[in-house]
């Protein structure tokens, strides 16, 4: 009989391979995770435009035109302006022709310039909404 003792452990190569694999997975997942976080934050800005969309739709139903559908007129809510520290929404306003513009605060990688704009388009006497703006171009909303 032999008195040899066997040590069962990982070799240095095996540990390095595992570290490389984990690094690759993190490098792939981190940008995707970051975009998902920005989309989730931006979603509250998109959702905050809902009462304004409803107001413009009511104004259009009342007047059969978008000419006087702006903030504070004909059922459209007045412009909203929020101080810092109350979420991502800085301000929301409806300009002439019912165009809704929402401005975010710079939070979590979203910039003040990442506006969300909704333009009403009349199709068969009904409104369709066309989203646009830098936030849409960056993929935060569609």
What does this structure look like?
This protein has a single domain (12-137), classed as Glycoprotein, Type 4 Pilin (2-Layer Sandwich), CATH 3.30.700.10. It is α+β, with helices and mostly antiparallel strands and 142 residues long. Strand 4 (116-123) and strand 5 (126-132) form a beta hairpin. It starts with 11 loop residues before the first helix and ends in a 5-residue tail after the last helix. The model has no long low-confidence stretch (mean pLDDT 90). It is built from three helices and five strands, in the order ααβββββα. It has a five-stranded antiparallel sheet with strand order 1-2-3-4-5.
Write the layout of secondary structure elements.
Layout: H1 12-48, H2 50-63, E1 80-81, E2 89-94, E3 100-104, E4 116-123, E5 126-132, H3 134-137
The chain-level mean pLDDT equals 90
- The CATH H-level homologous superfamily: Glycoprotein, Type 4 Pilin
Q: Any idea of the CATH topology?
A: Glycoprotein, Type 4 Pilin
Count, helices: 3
Strand order of the largest sheet: 1-2-3-4-5
A few lines on this structure:
With about 140 residues, this protein is an alpha+beta fold. It is about 40% helix and about 20% strand.
List keywords for this structure.
5-stranded antiparallel beta sheet, Glycoprotein, Type 4 Pilin, elongated, alpha+beta, 142 residues, 3 helices
């Amino acid at each position: 009989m032999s008195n040899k003792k066997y040590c069962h452990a990982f070799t240095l190569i095996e540990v390095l391979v595992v570290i490389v694999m984990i690094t690759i997975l993190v490098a792939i997942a981190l940008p995707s995770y970051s975009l998902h976080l920005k989309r989730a934050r931006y979603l509250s800005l998109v959702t905050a435009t809902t009462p304004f969309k409803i107001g413009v739709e009511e104004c259009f139903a009342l007047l059969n035109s978008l000419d006087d559908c702006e903030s504070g007129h004909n059922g459209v809510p007045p412009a909203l302006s929020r101080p810092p520290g109350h979420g991502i929404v800085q301000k929301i306003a409806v300009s002439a022709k019912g165009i809704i513009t929402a401005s975010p605060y710079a939070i979590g990688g979203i910039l003040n310039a990442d506006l969300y704009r909704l333009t009403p388009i009349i199709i068969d006497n009904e409104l369709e909404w066309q989203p646009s703006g830098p936030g849409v171009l960056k993929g935060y909303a569609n």
